[in-house]
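Q: Joint fold for the lines below.
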Amino acid sequence: MSLTLNFLFSQHDIKIRANMDYQFKQIEKDWQKFWAVNETFKAEADERKPKYYVLDMFPYPSGAGLHVGHPLGYIASDIFARYKRLKGFNVLHPMGYDSFGLPAEQYAIQTGQHPAKTTEANINRYREQLDNLGFSFDWSKEIRTSSSDYYKWTQWIFMQLFNSWYNKDTDKAEHISTLIEKLETMPSAEINAVCDEDVLSILPSDWSTMTAEEKQAELLKYRLTYLRESTVNWCAALGTVLANDEVKDGFSERGGHPVEQKKMMQWSMRISAYAERLLQGLNDIDWPEPLKEMQRNWIGKSVGAMMRFSLIPNPSPKEKGAQENKVNIEVKEKRGYETANSFVWDLLKENSKENRKNQTDAEVVLWNSLRDSQTGFKIRRQHVIEGYITDFVCLPKRLVIEVDGGYHNSEEAIAYDKQRTEFLNAAGFEVIRFTNEQVINHTNDVVSQIKIKLENLQSISTTQVAPSFSDSSQNISTTQVAPSPSEKAGDEASYIEVFTTRVDTAYGVSFLVIAPEHELVASLTTPEQKEDIDAYIFATKKKSELDRMSDVKTVSGAFTGSYAINPLNGVKVPVWIADYVLAGYGTGAVMAVPSGDQRDYLFAKHFNLPIIQILDAQKIDKEADPTKEGKYINSGIINGMGYKEATTTIITELKKLGMGYGKINYRMRDAIFGRQRYWGEPVPVYFKNGLPYLIDENELPLLLPEVDKYLPTESGEPPLGRAKDWKYKNSLSFGEGWGEAYEYELSTMPGWAGSSWYWYRYMDAKNDTAFAAQDKIAYWKDVDLYIGGSEHATGHLLYSRFWNKFLKDLGYVTEEEPFKKLINQGMIQGRSNFVYRINDAEGKGTNQFVSNGLKSQYPTSALHVDVNIVENDILNIEKFKAFREEYANAEFILENGKYICGTEVEKMSKSKYNVVNPDDLVERYGADTLRMYEMFLGPLEQSKPWNTNGIEGVFKFLRKFWKMFHDDSWNFTVSDTEPTKAELKSLHKIIKKVEDDVERFSFNTSVSSFMIAVNELTDLKSNNKSILQDLVIILSPYAPHICEELWVLLGNEAGTLSYASFPKFNAEYLIENEFAYPVSVNGKTKTNFLLSLALEPAEVEKEVMANDQILKYLDGKTPKKVIVVKGRIINIVI
RNA sequence: GCUGAAGUGGUGGAACUGGUAGACACGCAGGACUUAAAAUCCUGUUCCCGUUAAGGGAGUGCGGGUUCGAUUCCCGCCUUCAGUACCA
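A: Joint structure:
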């Protein structure tokens, strides 16, 4: 026995409890301490041993602590890790915490407690619970995403992403410098990059004349993490944006708050660049098929073609615009204040009303000084001019006054403001701007400036029609950044582009449908159809996201009045709008082929549009037929062809016409990367003239600053906006920008940032010069076994694969895929218990309760009862009476002297009183019992309700196992005799069984087999030392504490069990001489027949036919055939 | 709707390549020990017919098929769970 053991707990203690019944409490406590002090499971890279990396999905340390469902996966992975150690592998099995996140911050908002504090407390609680279960984690490698020596590297990876672009030619990410080289030497149009749609088409000569800032703005459109205005999922209740996978059915996944679509300037990750590799990689990894399927759906690849339909100029959009204005003037004199583009008026009116309710402080202050003609001039607020809502306007003087709040320092925002000013100028308005700060602190100055301006401007008669935007659009700069609806309406669009996966059906197109939000809607709408279209758009806007999703049956739409031309046959087809076409997918427009697509079919039927059959095999009387079978008819150049030939023929033709090309589309969008929250990694970026720049690498980590409150600022900026003196000062003592202070990015990174690379940090958790050393990455490579829930299918598991591929492209890691094999553990559901309270005549509850079996005889209501005071569905009446005061005098109608509770499977939650805490079970039965019972419950991957009912059986098993090492008065006794054949057979059966079961993650069956082995050996009255010692090793991954104790008692050195060798299986011990053949007649088993296994089938048949017992079953008939499978069965056919 | 997984005793589940369906455990019933209870141990426990027994029959969601033989393979249907949803 080692010194360390003596140091920790005395040999004396062990000796005393050796001669007692199974003392699990002391045994478990002592061994957990031993492992911790001796760092038994510390793993270092060691070239002499094969590596094996077992990882559990990163837990978020929630305040609720662990319930009995959480450790399921940890137990499985721990068994596997311990088993692999016994098999001679160098096992890395770490644990840590994904400790940034919303719940701690929500709690901080409510209580004012720093999230770091609550997080720390939660982690400690978590750790305590984990330690209770005897896991073999290497705690020397513990990590926390919220600690600065960890998030330093999260920020560092962010910087690498910012400094990279995706080269489609090499099919990998490269440093931005290689892009700059290309821009310097070739036309940008020839660069094959994944980038924004609005990149400039420029020549090297243009590039060389651009300013540094112009270049920076342009490069942002290529970087793998970038800033741009995008439509985001805004959750007002949480005060932040959410990623697509954090939104479920229009509500936030956490908390269930409503989520709306909103345009915001946001950091995004260009994950779409990796769409194809993420898809292909799925073929090379051993993951559950459903999980891979989910990722495939999420990536959503569709192979098809782009196709252009020319618009018929009847009238041309431009003429129409003019005509429209004329009509307006003629029909009713447009009043001077009716400056809004009438098409968008309805929509803007709503926004404008909204804005008036949600004015900023500065706007309120200014309005109080401007209202009621205090300046001598009539001023309106939130007035709509064409496509814009202005803050304040004086119409007779055509002066717009704007107050800037929130984000107005980013590149796009500035460009947008500039453009807005240009637009308003073009529309005949002058614009003056003030900042929030100016208005609030120097109100009088601001008001007098406005007065002076107003007095100097010439009045315009209110009956005079404002110059239309369309007329002056030529003056607008063409380098637009954020297009407004009205601006696009003025564009001269000559075609509609659609994406289709069935380009072969192009001759069956009988109309086009565009999304109601499509930018061309306004210009395509003819005056006659305007009313219809406006009404439809209005109705669509009113429908909530949920309504649109639930109501998929109703056919709705409206005709724009315009037509487009099918480039293949010149047929004129009408253009409709309908909300079944989504603005966000493809081009926001579809070619409708009613004969092949059910939605188009219903639409065509409803609006009486033609349905053209295009394949001879198509059956279209009742519904659309999407078949690809048969030969094409009514289809011009592809008549008589089959599907494949037709597709290539049409694509070739479209290319020739310049009206289309083959294209692959992905559903997956770039991932929004910013969160307007406090408790996350700060983004290592500062802004100069509205453009983002990285801070210097040696200034990492950029620490999360302290704030006074965890709420947005008054001007709506994220909580980091509250940090005092938190500005970037260039630390370089020379050069441009020296000594100046710049604004940092105020949003933080999302929850998935820290978890997208953490498995590498475990390889080298303390490294402060790299996220992990190269040689360690080269040794541990990737995760061999990853266990966790399927809820991470489209979030964490996709983002991690993306970052992994990116890090590989840059040469930092070696593997294309991070998680070789993945297992989803099933969810543990709750199993609730109910008592039935009898109601009186009025339906009011009495104080009388009736047992489940008799409840149908009374009017009752079911009440949840705490599962912890119910055992095997029998209520503990005393505890129930004590549970609540009102139950103290409760009466019970029993059956067979017991109160039986009803049961139901529900989610495990406090409110349902069905939460089972692992600590309670460890207290009662010990960790080894709980570990084995959780495995015994059923297959790991299956979801099942938790039911403590069977745990006694496992506990009894461990006691029986302990008993094998003892005589009847609990004296530790083992014998040194030669093992018998029967003992060896039992042992080798379990060796084989456990090997097979562990390798296929069938832990429940090996628990059963242990029970069988112990039952067999107990029946044999075996206490053979060599047999028992091997059994201790085999059982140790499942029940490590009891095995360590017995290992020492058997005379081995403490702590060596974890690195012992798994016993070698010898098939010879299982060989039998005889076998009781089941004898069946026509496949129905009748009896058994003991025969030597040496007999060949023919000899067996002879024996069988000579046996009177068996002949009895034949009813005197002669068998047609006798089938003998050696060592398996005998089947007689009559 | 689509995709995926799964339906076996009172319960959790086993049967791995087609070969004795219900292992193992819970629960339940009976018994032993005990003044009694708890704990422990022993026996029985798929259902139906048969007083017990001997024995017989049915049976793995439902209906069919392949096979000497099907929980396992094939076809159709039903149910439950999970994911996804107007994706062009």
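Q: Anything notable?
A: The CA atoms of residues 317 and 750 of chain A lie 44 Å apart. Confidence is low (pLDDT under 50) at residues 314-357, 460-491 of chain A.
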